[in-house]
Amino acid sequence: MTQNCIFCKIVAGEMPTTLLYQDEQVTAFRDIHPVAPTHILIIPNRHIASTNEAAPEDEALLGHLIGVARLLAERENIAANGYRLVINTGADGGQVVFHLHLHLLGGRKLVHP
Ligand code: 5GP
Ligand code: ZN
């Protein structure tokens, strides 16, 4: 675990959260400040700061994040109407938490930023 990383603490079960999914590679939970009726974060269990730090051998892991997002979209009944997957990277990307995470947003019509 990376020291003082809030998402590493969530993976380790040391931080209260609405856990929705966890396997050996990834963890998913509800965003604490939802901007859509469904707003879920899907993260790798291993600390990767951002897409800038992801290595070529992490490609399967990054693909798995999307697979779990799709599974959760089906569980949330938003798959048919559609949803948005977002990864923010760095300052200009609006990244606030530096443990890579995929936002799953849906449940309302989303306008382009
Ligand atoms: P970013 O801007 O880095 O892509 O998004 C970080 C997201 O993490 C934000 O949407 C924020 O609401 C969420 N977040 C920050 N701290 C916590 C927390 O302690 N628990 C949960 N569930 N979400 C958090
Ligand atoms: Zn972390």
Describe what this molecule looks like in 3D.
The chain is an alpha+beta fold and 113 residues long. It has one domain (6-36, 45-106): HIT-like (HIT family, subunit A). Helix content is 24%, strand content 22%. The protein has helices at 6-11, 59-75, 90-93; strands at residues 19-22, 26-30, 38-44, 83-86, 102-106. Strands 1-2-3-5-4 form a 5-stranded antiparallel β-sheet. The model has no long low-confidence stretch (mean pLDDT 97). Residues 2, 5, 7-8, 47, 99 line the site of zinc ion. Residues 6, 17, 29-33, 41, 88, 94-97 line the site of guanosine-5'-monophosphate (5GP).
How would you summarize what this structure contains?
This protein is α+β, with helices and mostly antiparallel strands. The protein is 24% helix and 22% strand. The site of zinc ion has 6 residues, from helix 1.
CATH architecture: 2-Layer Sandwich
Weakly predicted, low-confidence segments: none
So, the CATH homologous superfamily? Answer: HIT-like
- Biggest β-sheet: strands ordered side by side in the sheet: 1-2-3-5-4
Mean pLDDT: 97
Question: What portion of residues belong to β-strands?
Answer: 15-25%
The count of domains is: 1
Q: Any idea what the radius of gyration is? A: 13 Å
Largest sheet: 5 strands, antiparallel
SSE pattern: HEEEHEHE
Q: Looking at the chains present, what oligomeric state does this protein adopt? A: single chain
Please name the CATH topology. HIT family, subunit A
Query: Share of helix among residues?
Result: 10-25%
Class per helix and strand makeup: alpha+beta
